[in-house]
Records
---
Amino acid sequence: MRVDQRLGPHISNSLPEVHQQVVTGIVGDAPSRYAKTPPLWNAVYRDLGWDAISLPWDVTAEGLGGFVKAARQTESIVGFSVTNPHKIAIVPLLDDLDPLARQIGAVNTVARQPGGGLRGYNTDGQGAIDALTMRLPGLEGPFIDGLAGRRVTMIGAGGAARAVAFYLGSHLGPGGALRIVNRDAGKARALGDAVRTEYGVGEGAGEDRLRACIGDADLVVNASLKGQSGWRRRGDGRAYLLEPYSALGPADPASIDGEKPGGQFATREWFLASLTDLRKNVAAGLEAIAEMPAHAACFDLIYSPLETRFLRDARESGLATQNGKWMNVAQAADAFARKVCTVALREQGISEDAGYDRAFAVMARVW
């Protein structure tokens, strides 16, 4: 059975007929609309001369179990990336977890093992550290000159946030501080406690404590979905947008009939219904930025759009900003060379580190 036929019942986007010997992709609620993974991986495949393809797979929460089962049964699928909102939900569906992914409790990369089982990894955290501290193409130096002793405030406690939190905790050291704020204060506190248990830093609180956590922050990280492009759907099927929102303010967007997005007046209808909430959010975000230290840096994991409202407001206030582009490139290169395609690279005489450097260079060029 062809890949497209086996996966078809579990995805909502259209698939081309797949004839390549090696198949990878990315699974999430709507990666076909925004994910960079397929073009990045496909560029590396072309550079290596492989008969391989990477595809976006739109999968609902209800369809995730069936998708994983179908992927396990499809030997040409050597691995795939995982994006929102499935990074945590996919964990119990896999056959094995890398120890670090188990510690984080979230997976963004799945690789087929020699016996056919699916093993989960997490490359988000290292991707974030690389984006913050590496010397990147076209830039004079790293965005942050080291993380040891820094005071970091992070917004969000979901899958990507968990990975970034653990990696930040391992780099901040005893003189640093990691404050995690989230709409669900319980999740923030649980994540902060878990990081503190491992690395001695980490505390969590609700969004109402954000202003108190940024007054002396050296780095503010948005690891929430506030600011990301594209329509999102609630459990009841109704649709809403988050792109107009700042990560630094509370968000309670209105929702519209889930069948309307894509129509001529859908965005306008949603905007007018959400206007009062948007005004509150934007005002709170600007007030928060005004209270941040002049030396503070602002990092957003989001890369669609390239400049979120959080980053735009921060930039216009004179603060240093960076979007999620380089984190996306770094985590993708890590997943490609050190997780999913390691064996194939080795068969060509390419080591993991050399494969990472080659993949990073190609992905950075075509991003």
---
Amino acid sequence: MSAARGAVPTGEERKPCVSSDCDPARLDLTPAEGYLLSRIDGATSIAQLRQIGGLPAGEMVTCVERWIAEGVLVVEGGGGQLGVTSQERPVAEVPLPTVDAALDLPVDTQEAVRDFLGRLGAPYHEVLGVDFSADVRTIKKAYFALSKKFHPDRYFRRELGAFQDPVERIWRRILEAYELLSDPATRAEVQKTGGGATGAAAEANPAVASPLQSARRMRARLTTLAGHRKMVGERRRKAKGFFESGMAAFRKDRWLEAAGSVRLAIAFDPQNEAYRAAFPDVQGRAHEERAKQVLKEADACYDLGDYREAFKFYEEATHYRPFDAELHHKAGRLAFRLGEDLRKAKEYASSACELEPESAIHHRTLGQIFAAAGLDANARRELQQALRLDPKDAEAKEALRAL
């Protein structure tokens, strides 16, 4: 919770800065200490330093307290103990949700959630599991694969127990990573600031580098400390302007404009939790707005008989509505009708079956696609399932007889 206006910040809310009487270049520092000092700019709180300081939380606080006592740092309200809060425990000590076979969440998915929590603060490309230089198509493919496993809508009305909040946190991070990397403007900015990493992952820990590399990095950071402060301040001012513009657009229901502005705010100041907290709701509204536009175009093309163009629009719409079973079925059916890409047809039809397993039509379509691909055993399985769900499905009966 932020300090009340006019009050002296205490504990991890306090924001130390380097004393005007101190020459950092003259200090005898370890590489890790040099890195920590380079992050102290008078605008970064103890809580933020705890996350990005390159030292274990307890060591970081001890180091800052020593520098305050030595006059290297000054902090509003004078010296005094900063203290280590419960939030400053190493990440490994924070308990993960315990695997529970009784939950409505497969055990392998529970294990995947536990594993993913360990890299929530990693750079965006690592969150998505792609290379740093991955193209938009690869990024989109990774996003779709992760959405099938972690999108909260997939678990609507299911009992997730202690996994409820982690799943939502993971999805917010995946969405943020995808949106900022798939937009060329925001991708260029986040790659200037650690690739979208947050917390301790925001910068590589200099302690793991070679002594020579660490010393060079430390000298470079200390030498450019003033420039760094100026750059950080300017990026934060820009981020604030983008965020305020985005919120103004959001209040006027201009969802797409709002989402674009908030994306830029995060790109310029990825450590700002307020921007990141607002993003899922803003982007969700933008997705729905874009989905309506795209589906309108898709239906118009379909009515005109331009099925190839209609398929492109339906395919795009699945990005904005990843758990709309009817939309996936429509895309799969249309891809099958075009007959040019049975792999895509199978993917969309399979998704429709997974999302609505009790739909005979979805299983019938998937069976027909398997039959066209020469996969008779798979085709027979899906067509028989369609008939179990709807014994009167004449089209499924005919397709089964044709095998």
---
Amino acid sequence: MQNDSYDLIVIGSGAAGMIAAIKAARDNKKVLLLEKLPKIGSKLKATGGGRCNLSNTLDDSDFMKSFGRNGRFMATAIEHLNHKSLITFFKEIGVDTHIPDGFRIFPKTHSSSTIIEALEKELIKLNVTILCNSKVTKILTKDNKVVGVETNSTNYETTNIILATGGLGYPKLGSTGDGYELSSQIGHKITNLHPAMMPLLTKENWQSSCRADTIAKAHIKINLPKAKKLKAIGDLIFTSNGLRGPVILDFAREITPFLDKYNEVPILINMVKGKNEDEILAYLKKQSKVETYTNIIEQLNNILPQSISIELCKLIGANINLKFNKLDGTIRDKLVKIIANTPFTIIGHDGFKMAMITRGGISLKQIEPKTMQSKIIKGLYFCGEIIDLDGPCGGYNLQWSFSSGYLAGCLYLNQIGYNDTHE
């Protein structure tokens, strides 16, 4: 091993890796940041369509709940860096933020380049050594302790490594699962990996006639016995071969594990802001009394776009030239039911190449949540998407990357001792 030695080596230059390197360098650590791509922050540049939704204004408790049953794992990380302190951090390095919709936090420029440039400037100011085109091929250990890394060009000594290589989403931006391989080589368990936050493909194709319409506050649930509690609400967009929109991006993380198991996943969509069958029936009966309405499509106009109303009527064989009260009783029942719960069958997706995040990762059971360090390898830390913890869209995952990276960068191993964190 050559004589290049550092207090800390950070592998990966996404949001988590860069803030980890900055925190450690501010604490007077000699830091090396390794990135396998020609430039740092490639995936961060694409975040939020390039607008970079940094976080949101949820309080810490509700923020963690949004990540599901494992959300409490991030308690210490959020205590160190929540959305308020993240705003302060960026203000300190020259980035002004704002909250245009009262919830999502963006840089005022609405450009991820602003964030990357500010982080890079701070890294340089703190004398962090940045090496791009440097792919780590092995984490070197001795007696279950970190001693260095092996790269495609040379080796480096260190007693601390932060692994911030991301997941499998958007592989063209560098997320190819390198961190999973590096971790498994030294004994860490990787949970099942699933693509998440992406459009979904359906068996049905009638929705291709409705692509001009966005459905606000659509309610979606999985129609399987083991998934009755899984629900989502948000804007829905139809595509030529499936579904997309914010609600689908969010809910994909729940659907893809079932898709791997069953090949097809039935879902039900309520496109009338959650109105139940009784409310829909009462509405249609009331609309039938309006003399200016001559058919069911006109009656549905206030709750559904015309294109969707026509397609739903076709699906159940309803005559679109009749009013609701003139339809056969069986057809009326079918229409009410299909409006309340429109069925779709999810049959696939475009894989990790279109996935913004990865569901699954390094097992939480092998990571100390108060420090982000490995429970089995002294001096090894994890942060960001590589960990088995993911949230919905809306700044959740980027905040988690920053928070976990900041906590990892504290290097509590050196301050309180490895054994103290494993009592």
